[in-house]
Amino acid sequence: MTTVEERPHTGFGRTLRKEDVRLVRGKGNYVDDVRLPGMLHGALLRSPYAHAKINSIDTSAAEAHPKVLAVITGETLKGLGLAWMPTLSYDVQAVLATDKVRYQGQEVAFVIAEDHYSARDAVELIEVDYEPLPVVADAKKAMDADAPVIRDDKEGQTNNHIFDWESGDQAETDAVFANAEVVVAEDILYPRVHPAPLETCGSVADMDPVTGKLTLYTTSQAPHAHRTVYALVAGLPEHKIRVIAPDIGGGFGNKVGIYPGYVMSIVGSIVTGKPVKWVEDRAEHLMSTAFARDYHMRGEIAATKDGKILGLRVKVLADHGAFNATAQPTKFPAGFFHVFTGSYDLQAAHCTVTGVYTNKAPGGVAYACSFRITEAVYLVERMVDVLAYELKADPAELRMKNLIQPEQFPYTTKTGWEYDSGDYPKALQLAMDMAGYDELRKEQAEKRERGELMGIGVAFFTEAVGAGPRKHMDILGLGMADGAELRIHPTGKAVLRISVKTQGQGHETTFAQIVGNELGLPTADIDVVHGDTDQTPFGLGTYGSRSTPVSGAATALVARKIRDKARIVASAMLEVSPDDLEWEGNRWQVKGDPEQGKTIQEIAMAAHSSLELPEGVEGHLDATTVYNPPNLTYPFGAYICVVDVDKGTGGVKVRRFIAVDDCGVRINPMIVEGQVHGGLADGVGMALMQVIAFDEEGNHLGASFMDYLLPTSLECPSWELGETVTPSPHHPIGAKGVGESATVGSPCAVVNAVLDAIKPYGVRHADMPLTPAAVWGAMNGRPIRTDLAIP
Ligand code: MCN
Ligand code: CUN
């Protein structure tokens, strides 16, 4: 059998994932695998109501359970000053509800028992006297005069308004609209969806009563940020808190925030003096952890009769649930939605976003969202198709006509974002060539003649990933920059320590490849350490596809520091001036005399030896760095989806999907393709199957995988991938992030394809998910509101 280690590999390119040696053999170590001596188990009581006053909580029967050690309520926490915790958005969230519950599934009490089952049993024994209150589950009704005020805990809060925010120039945009030949408008919903990683959230807290040191094993995409938040909340110094995020079974943004369950495992360990594990089940996960989207958008496009897009005007109503717990950079309450001008060269653009509270779970930035660019791309790509519909134009041609041109880069959008690099027409043309676009249109026309429904959906996207710069971007005051540390051992083996955290993206492989590319070390000789705050440098973690743009850059630069130091060591070894040396692959060699050189391994040994080094040069080969990105990176792509729709049932079959992605230089093309495959499947899921819907009482209607559907290979075609490579000019290795690209770009391609198929029925728009019922409803003049009840 060939193991990864037996395949020598250095630098960029396709290589098997180092982490799969353990992951595919079932040898991963996830939070629920953590078993500590004397460990106890916690379980949460959650509210069955979406909105209710809590009159009283009787825990006596639960406490009497023979295996129960403690039952903790919000009243207990109040005494500790811990009943409320800060969210990452300068709001507060109840750890355990005291006054009232504000969404179905909210945490009300925590039971600690000797085993998991007893904890669950005892949860059932808690008696809560709830007094149901009126519910607002529809964002459109949240600001009605008679809507119940959800956040009456907040002083001065007299309605459900959270924020108003705008971007772009309103007057300029209105002027463009006033003079435009064509104006089209559409109401577009991006419904609430859930990232649904296979591993739910959980933690094991171990507070050592002797040393006062807390070790927390937890499902966290951002261990350092979490540690600082715990330090602030608990008043503990950071060095007394160790956050370990072991293997993570998918994060997709869901594991960026801090959940009450994590805090309760910590409180539980403090109260009992024993380690306490809390791991939620699927229903709890789907009901109470970070969801995504829930954006009600109105888009308007101004254009000329022959299809030149001039302006874009957008109004958004953002449903944030009961607590504003989105994890987006502080200055951006609507995330990066203002990149809503997409891939088009416009004269003017303006948008407003209003955020409101509803009786739904908090969260909002998850599911490969790039801080709301998903919503923005969906909106603009849907709007371009709406315009194509009105102008009877070909959607690919219309896009081609309006794309930002290669010579316009770096391109500043009307909302002030600077796209670093791109060649958009080339990507779209490649996708069209791969698809055989003209033949597809011919086939569609023939099928329409026969009354068959075939659709071709086109979407183009620009992503914005790699937050910071820290000057503009922070989370709870923590600037978005990341550290890296690299140590080369005497034998030339290396340890790289990074601040980001893989959840399946393959960092243990790709980050080793970055070091290998810089130093010529075999990938197998480089160990990548991540996910442990005691072992890694500070940094903000993995989300917003920022690992490669930020931490990947830090990794390349820290390796270059080592290379520079290795040059001095080599010059001492070879007794020549450093200036006379040149780097070649894995060695410093004398210019003009390549026979004379020293490999990085030889240099590493010498750096640890008795070799005399020049004055002021320390021995050993270690370096650290902190990388503050000068700008985001802007990957992009062109997607084409082909569907067949069943006339009788509205059922959709995705027949083909062509995806051309440009993420700059690819470190590991196989991993990039894996990321794209996953994101495309996400897109099929969101477009056709997924919604977290609610009924009028705020009952959550998607709390299991029977209701909330995950796409499988049966729903997905065999993806057809293409690539163009436009390096990022400001990134040390020219790479851009890619982890969320396909999730951002694909839903609209699928939706545009379905709507293209049913165009003969006079349908211009219908909201996701395009379930058979939604498609059939649209075809038959009976559109449905997909977010309020599953039809
Ligand atoms: N990569 C590469 N060349 C590039 C860009 C990326 O080889 N030019 C590689 C990277 O080195 C890394 C992977 O592709 O191994 C993804 O890199 P990047 O785009 O930097 O994204 P992150 O590593 O920061 O991952 C975060 C991103 C996000 S925000 C979500 S959400 C998401 C996604 O990754 N969650 C995922 N992909 C996921 N994939 C898995 N399996 N599980 C998740 O939870
Ligand atoms: Cu928004 S989902 Mo990813 O950024 O972790």
TrEMBL record:
Boundaries of every Aldehyde oxidase/xanthine dehydrogenase a/b hammerhead domain copy: 25-134
Stretches of the chain forming a coiled coil according to its record: none
Keyword Oxidoreductase listed: yes
InterPro entries in the record: Ald_Oxase/Xan_DH_a/b (IPR000674), Ald_Oxase/Xan_DH_a/b_sf (IPR036856), Ald_Oxase/xanthine_DH-like (IPR016208), AldOxase/xan_DH_MoCoBD1 (IPR008274), AldOxase/xan_DH_MoCoBD2 (IPR046867), AldOxase/xan_DH_Mopterin-bd_sf (IPR037165), CO_Mo_DH_lsu (IPR012780)
Cofactor: Mo-molybdopterin cytosine dinucleotide
Keyword entries, A-Z: Molybdenum, Oxidoreductase
Pfam family, one: MoCoBD_2
Gene Ontology molecular function: anaerobic carbon-monoxide dehydrogenase activity; copper ion binding; iron ion binding; molybdenum ion binding
Protein name: Carbon monoxide dehydrogenase, large subunit apoprotein
Species: Asanoa ishikariensis
